[in-house]
Amino acid sequence: MTPAGTMNWRAMPALDPVLAGSGLALIMVGLIAISSASIEYADWHFGNPWHHTQRHLIYIALAAVAAAITYRVPPTFWEQTGWAWLLGALALLVLVLVPGVGKDVNGSQRWLPLGPFTLQPSELGKLAMVIYLAGYLVRQEQEVRSEWSGFLKPMGVVGVMALLLMAEPDFGATVICAGTAFGMVFLAGARLGHFIVVLLGALLALVALVFSAPYRVQRLTAYTDPWADPFGSGFQLIQSLIAFGRGEWVGVGLGNSVQKLFYLPEAHTDFVFSIWSEETGLFGALLVMGLFAALIGRILWIARRAITAGEKFGAYVFYGTALIFSGQAFVNMGVSSGLLPTKGLTLPFVSYGGTSLIMSCCLLALVLRIEHEGRQGRRRANG
Length: 383
Fold this sequence. Notes:
Elements (H helix, E strand, L loop, with lengths): L16 H30 L4 H22 L2 H6 L1 H14 L7 E3 L2 E7 L2 E3 L1 H19 L1 H6 L1 H20 L3 H17 L4 H21 L1 H11 L10 H13 L24 H37 L3 H25 L17 H28 L2
């Protein structure tokens, strides 16, 4: 018994320290990086150098509330309602395409205005897809492993989502969603022959999509030789590479970036990693990579333990979450460093963007809750 008005700390569910610690550290890195990268831009456009910092603090508060609510919900609820979340996400992806409803920014209609804020349905779509596919793979495990129908049904759902995302257009989110779905189905034990045939078809469709839009071809050619058009298609990549070069080993110091002074576009969003690397150097960049490696590696380790214990829904959620985090981190860092063609994708927990941050925190909270449930179950089973 505990005295009235006091909290029984032993009864509080213990969070996995690696998951919670690495996630929190990445959020703090993001807050510092955004504050530094956006200060000049915010002062020029809004007359308030802390405009984006203040908004990002609001996003962090909203993300904390959303994560707390997600953590309180039992995993069985998510497993049973995955289809409802998927339908809701698809409905929002349709709604954002309605003229006069979705908000158009730089030729892309990806946002739903909600007063002073905006909602990006593609981010909710990633969360809904992971939950839906995890439940489907548990219910239809044998069909997925032995029949074409079991493999093609979820791919059809992913195909519908991909078409809606490409209509915005959002090529980056399409690649992440499709890649995550393929990875989850493959890890669930789909036949290699089925997987290869559909994967080849998806790759052909991907190539066709690239060459169907001139601006995508331009980005591809700029990526291979940005100096061929240094003031046009190659400008953003060149400025990003300059930021990395200026950072050297230990950086120029927080707040001392030159590239954020209107040289590098999207400095506080898609290219925040470049500014962070300029100000903190190679050691700062390796710190962020190490935090992502710790987070993703821990999720995969927990997934393997869940599979061994027969906790398949949790394992598939872990796999999907790890694939989303690793895919986005790899693409974002690869684009910033010139390893990949320019593509607008946020760096989870770090880039400026409310919907991305909230959904990332919800995914992490879901992983933490399922991990805790599994740990408690194994503890009870062992006496």
